[in-house]
Amino acid sequence: MSDVPAVEAIxxxxxxxxxxxxDGVSFSVPRGSVLGMLGPNxxxxxxxxxxxxxxxxxxxGTGRVSGHDVVAEPNxxxxxxxxxxxxxxxxxxxxxxxxIRLIGRLYGLPMKYIKQVSDELLERFTLTAAADRxxxxxxxxxxxxxxxxxSLVAHPxxxxxxxxxxxxxxxxxxxLWEVLRGLVRDGTTLLLTxxxxxxxxxxxxxxxxxxxxxxxxxxxxxxxKDQAGRASVVVTLTHEADLAQAEVxxxxxxxxxxxxxxxxxxxxxxxxxxxxxLIAGVFADSGIAIDDLGLKxxxxxxxxLHLTGHRAELAADTDVEESAVEEAAR
Amino acid sequence: xxxxxxxxxxxxxxEARNLAQQSLTVVWRNLLHxxxxxxxxxxxxxxxxxxxxxxxxxxxxxxxxxxxTYREFLLPGIMAQTMVxxxxxxxxxxxxxxxxxxxxxxxxxxxxxxxxxxxxSVSSLIHSSIGIVVMAVTGxxxxxxxxxxxxxxxxxxLLLLLFGFxxxxxxxxxxxxxxxxxxVNGFMFTVMFPLTFVANTFAPTEDMPSWLRFIAExxxxxxxxxxxxxxxxxxGPAVSDAAWPLxxxxxxxxxxxxxxxxVFAPLALAAFRRRSRD
Lengths: 330, 278
Known about the structure:
The structure holds two protein chains of two kinds. Chain A is built from 13 helices and 14 strands. Chain A has helices spanning 45-52, 74-79, 96-107, 111-124, 140-151, 170-185, 197-203, 221-227, 243-253, 273-286, 300-308, 312-318, 320-329; strands at 7-16, 19-29, 34-38, 60-65, 68-69, 81-84, 158-162, 189-194, 206-211, 214-219, 232-237, 258-260, 265-269, 290-296. In chain A, a hairpin with a 2-residue loop joins strand 9 (206-211) and strand 10 (214-219). Chain B is mainly α.
């Protein structure tokens, strides 16, 4: 049993009319690990999660949760997983405690157990003080935490989180990350989708990058960063007029030099601090004034740019058509 | 803290629950909504009471009714209208839950998916029934009376519930088809007002132009209203040239309810399932 992956997707496809929202996605999530599904809006992340959580029927392909097939044994799948949706699906007119009770009752948990477990969950997610207020009065971060608490009432071994921190301020976001790390420590398997490269980097053991319904890269955060190439050195000049002369100087010491169109910046490949020192010395001797000199390690954002040719954040704003497809999925 | 972790992590003692228990849980949740937002009941309390008062005192004097006072004639009409609007209540509640992702949440649980619909239907019937009680009390205050036996009176209330039940399927269908609460609201009110006004609810059909009279007398809402009036003794017998349904209103109320259920239940279930599948 222990070698059965917590979640498996094998060539999952979901078509809406002619449009394939998910176009052959495969991955496997070992028990107790965290998979980050990274991609812009409309990439097919939500649709994939909806298929794996039995909310949407795959057009083709196989999905399994704790070894149970999502189409053949939907109730077994539902018993072994919890889902926290893109928009926090708490009932606004119920109190925090009542929200937990509602889902607990539907799971078939006895009242006595629900009382005990809801006290513990409210405590754990620092909602005890707000437990008897209706959820409408909660802040965004509190709603997400309540949503998560509700998902955990029957202690599912697998938890799906669809963009758990979208729309949260940085403080609430890092608080939620801490909560998620706690769950992982307790042995829960997480599959989380995110548009934030930093979030996948912070939480995930493995990452699959999804774009236009396809997996375009996979690996550990480190592997993906390696794929995006080596570190680079960034030189920002004080005067734009020095640009040509600076470029010549830089080409003498390092390779891969290019001028960033935006301003007075030059970027070059660098293998490490030795190159930095060299460049600093050259510029000091030449008398060209520089504002800044820095070593830039590739972020997951660079990975995304490298893989797709466009920046993730930019994609999120412009892929309106595809987000309409995911909208239709709901 | 140790205790916390041990309980949360222990295998939860999940018990088998049947459809009725799951549906009741959904009803509990829907009724909590009414308790938290009592203004949700305005549509079955203040609004119909206003209708009663407006019609009874503003139009009442100029609408002549055979065999009863206008106020007695009016009350069954308002009650029928209140029950027909239960379809709008269901539709709005369902669309709201779909929109907010609550239905998704329920569907991700190991429960029967019908419990969402059954729970919604039962709570809507309770919602509308509260309206019927309010109407009855208002009616008694302004002179409406039940003039026949207990059995007839009870049958009339049963017919109201049966008709309301059949209208709920229409509500589930509309609620599953439309994507926003605003759209449902617009659609339901566009359908419900002609349906409840082009009928014998507020005025006798005899004086309508013949084409309109034909529509009004075949309108299922007229059958329901006429059956209530007959069973409660709130009107004289149907005029001799009235359409067949008005000559046999009790039977026809049952027939219409069955037809609505047979037509709308499959449509509603298919639409809800379609909305659920994707």
